[in-house]
Amino acid sequence: MRNRMIAGNWKMNKTFTEGVVLAQGLVRELEGGTGDVDVVVCPPTVDLKGVSEVIEQEGAPFSLGAQNVYFEESGAYTGETAPDMLVGIGATHCIIGHSERRGYFGETDEDVNRKAKALMSHGIVPISCCGESLEVREAGTHVSFVVEQIKKDTAGLKIDDPSKYVIAYEPIWAIGTGKTATADDAQEVCGAIRETLAEAFGQEVADGIRILYGGSAKPENVAGFLGKDDVDGALVGGASLKADSFAAMVKAAM
Ligand code: PEP
């Protein structure tokens, strides 16, 4: 049985103080608990410490995730953050391979794979993103495109506990555009992802890995995605920037 997951990607939004205020607001919104739903918030790197303190001091019912990591342990990599540093600040999850990092910063599937290995060796749960462009979708090759991404992103991973590796399917054309994939579109690709995982890691492991949908998910449409067999939650951008809308999505998943 897979617990659902709702993860918020704040992207490059919220100053340190604004991040603390948002996290405190989320604590209030979720004071009744989150049931079996795993909730993760992923602030910008400079906000991690502040949100970590809110989680610790207020006993928040959510976990802390980073938005990026570098795969080396330490050294001359100006501007980067090592897995160990994330552990030290209380992060338990980390987004990797987001389409914005692939598109603007040249992150490749090989990088995503190395980052997943580095995170997992430090006990951090990767939230590994995949998804096709509008061009690929219109060419009708989106399923094979994403399957290839998954094969490269997961190559050689050792997944002992499938609850500790998460995939987010995010069609690029639906991110921040207000244009959502339908629940059936999401299921088509998420189902293919699970089959690919079963071929690589066996059915039992594949059945334990959470596959999230992301792309203009909001309180009004999240239930439709969650109703699909292979969609286990959502990675939320815009709608995670307000405590009430993000909390409403968590409640819809409960
Ligand atoms: C995202 O960037 O991960 C995302 C899903 O963004 P939005 O919800 O704003 O489309």
From TrEMBL:
Principal subcellular localization: cytoplasm
Biological processes per GO annotation: gluconeogenesis; glyceraldehyde-3-phosphate biosynthetic process; glycerol catabolic process; glycolytic process
PROSITE patterns: TIM_1, TIM_2
InterPro entries according to UniProt: Aldolase_TIM, TIM_sf, TrioseP_Isoase_bac/euk, Triosephosphate_isomerase, Triosephosphate_isomerase_AS
Transmembrane stretches, start-end: none
Gene3D superfamilies referenced in this protein's UniProt entry, alphabetically: Aldolase class I
Keyword Isomerase annotated: yes
Catalytic activity, reaction form: D-glyceraldehyde 3-phosphate = dihydroxyacetone phosphate
Pathway: Carbohydrate biosynthesis; gluconeogenesis; Carbohydrate degradation; glycolysis; D-glyceraldehyde 3-phosphate from glycerone phosphate: step 1/1
Catalytic machinery residues: H98, E170
A single GO molecular function term of this UniProt record: triose-phosphate isomerase activity
Binding locations of substrate: N9, W10, K11, G176, S216, G237, G238
Coiled coil: none
Role according to the record: Involved in the gluconeogenesis. Catalyzes stereospecifically the conversion of dihydroxyacetone phosphate (DHAP) to D-glyceraldehyde-3-phosphate (G3P).
Complex formation: Homodimer.
Record protein name field: Triosephosphate isomerase
Native species: Olsenella uli (strain ATCC 49627 / DSM 7084 / CCUG 31166 / CIP 109912 / JCM 12494 / LMG 11480 / NCIMB 702895 / VPI D76D-27C)
Gene name in the database record: tpiA
